[in-house]
Amino acid sequence: MTEHNRPAEDSPYLLELKDISLSFGGLQAISGVSAGVRDGEIFAIIGPNGAGKTSVLNCVNRFYRPSAGHIYFQNIDITRMKPHRIAELGIARTFQNVELFPGMSVIDNIKLGRHAHLKCGFLTGGLYLGKARQEELALRKEIEETIIDLLEIEHIRKQTVATLPYGLQKRVELARALAMKPRLLLLDEPAAGMNLEETEDMARFILDINEEWDVTIILIEHDMGVVMDISDRVCVLDFGQKIAEGVPEEIRNNEHVIKAYLGEEDLAYSRLGA
Q1: pLDDT tens string for the chain (274 positions)?
Q2: With contact defined as beta carbons under 8 Å apart, do 172 and 155 qualify?
Q3: Residue 72 contacts residue 34 (beta carbons within 8 Å)
Q4: How far is the C-alpha of 48 from the C-alpha of 254, rounded, in Å?
Q5: What is the sign of the dihedral through the CA atoms of 102, 105, 106 and 110?
Q6: The pLDDT value given to residue 167
Q7: CATH number, domain 1-90+182-274
Q8: Where are the domains of the chain?
Q9: Spatial separation of the C-alpha atoms in residues 93 and 15, rounded to whole Å
């Protein structure tokens, strides 16, 4: 049995991190982090700036290769898989900063999310021959009837991305990730830079994706109100190490977590996300 096919030992998790470490020269970004994400849950990763949260996501979808440890998805070792193979397995991603093609329309940006699953080859696609045309029309119909409707962006579907306000661009990036038909969705600060109304909308969309589409979600978010309201479990990192994991109420009242965020002096006066 090859390494990529070697199953984790009786793992109850959809995604499992086992002793993941990551270093850049002398800088240790992640140090021996282990965690498991159950099928169907919203699993939040929180921590102060520089705690290693985004680095964990970058290891999962192979932007970075861990210097130690293993990552399993559906009992398959994906630690050394190529990024495009990770996408094909059903792991999609959004980013801290919007990563869209600003000169293209909303609908065209979203369609790009399906590239890993398109069946037509380079020649038929380039010449826009029969099968390629049929596939694209079917994809467009599916996107407009499901993803665009879910995220309430029908009114902007033909607009150029560069003309949109930031909050709508974040929504388009989420739509592109959904076009991949993910089993696991990695969301890196989806509400960053949004006002209160936009943040509430984004939280509602995340819940709908999780509950109606049955998509497991790993969420990085600094808005503790959002984290505590919608997460099933929360993992806390500090200086690249895991310092706590549990349901939101446990994390809210964990003194080690409060200290990591606020410092020793404020520990007695605050409770996270209250």
Answers
A1: 444 445 555 679 999 999 999 999 889 999 999 999 999 999 999 999 999 999 999 999 999 999 999 999 999 999 999 998 999 999 999 998 888 999 999 999 998 887 655 554 444 444 445 566 676 677 677 787 899 999 999 999 999 999 999 999 999 999 999 999 999 999 999 999 899 999 999 999 999 999 999 999 999 999 999 999 999 999 999 999 999 999 999 999 898 898 887 665 444 445 565 5
A2: no
A3: no
A4: 15
A5: negative
A6: 93
A7: 3.40.50.300
A8: 1-90+182-274, 101-181
A9: 15
Residue 228 corresponds to which tokens in the numbers above?
């505590």
Q: Per residue, what are the HEC states of the chain?
A: CCHHHCCCCCCCCCEEEEEEEEEECCEEEEEEEEEEECCCCEEEEECCCCCCHHHHHHHHCCCCCCCEEEEEECCEECCCCCHHHHHHHCEEECCCCCCCCCCCEHHHHHHHHHHHHCCCCHHHHHHCCHHHHHHHHHHHHHHHHHHHHHCCCHHHCCCEHHHCCHHHHHHHHHHHHHCCCCCEEEEECCCCCCCHHHHHHHHHHHHHHHHHCCCEEEEECCCHHHHHHHCCEEEEEECCEEEEEECHHHHHCCHHHHHHHHCHHHHHHCCCCC
